[in-house]
Amino acid sequence: MDSKRYLIYLMRVLKSVTDRKYFDCDFHIHTCLSPCADITMVPGAVGKRLSELGIDWIAITDHNSCGNVRVFKNALKKRGIEVIPGIEVQSLEDVHILGYFSSVDLAENYSRWLEKKMKKVLVDPEKFGYQLYVDENDEYYEIENIWLGQPVNLNISEVFGSINEFGGIAAFAHIERKMGVLYQMGFIPEMKIKPIIEVTFKKTISENNFVKNYPVIHSSDAHSIETLKPTLKIDTNRRTYNNFKNIIKNNYSRDKVKIIWD
What we know:
Elements: H1 3-18, E1 22-29, H2 43-53, E2 57-63, H3 69-77, E3 82-90, E4 96-100, H4 104-115, H5 125-128, E5 132-134, E6 140-143, H6 156-165, E7 169-172, H7 181-185, E8 196-199, H8 202-207, E9 216-218, E10 232-235, H9 241-250, E11 257-259
Parallel strand pairs: 1-2, 2-3, 7-8, 8-9
Antiparallel strand pairs: 1-10, 3-4, 4-7, 5-6, 10-11
């Protein structure tokens, strides 16, 4: 192949990468900071498995804290995996609500604010699970003593409002499972802005007509390495928070957000 043809070939390869449309995603993943997650959920192990699965766009969403978000974002970036800073808040009604933020700084600010809304409940990690802060070398450096698996002093509306006030977007997590809004309350309450809903099972969509009225996502809610999996294909040319917000919330379309079922 002469130099001219080789140059054309390289340009075609580059264009195919640049014009890529779909990214494999999972926007609900826990780390070793969540009390119900395995202590193996550290950056190296998570990043390795995500790479094996071809997942390149995720959200880190620990219970009531963003304490490990920065470390995971930095570590996974080296593997070409984009991380949206997130959190999973437990409301007074024992309903889990996902929050997504445009930057680590905003997520951490929200996390510090939310900490003041939690009771200072100390728990035995042997009974309730270890809550571990980890560095980019997969080394634990601190244990969180305040129990993160408790409801904060905010109702559903207040959780949604607070996430919005910090510039984030909120979604009801695993609506049909325990701690999901449909499971806990039997209905999805009316909100000022139509909420995003996360479903776990395919039958939830086929058996509930109302679901079609909401932006729907599907996630692994992974608490262990073996439960990581691609759950969405997102149609976009760039993995940015603004693109995420526009596709998932502002201009939701099932053509652009394709659910991957098992």
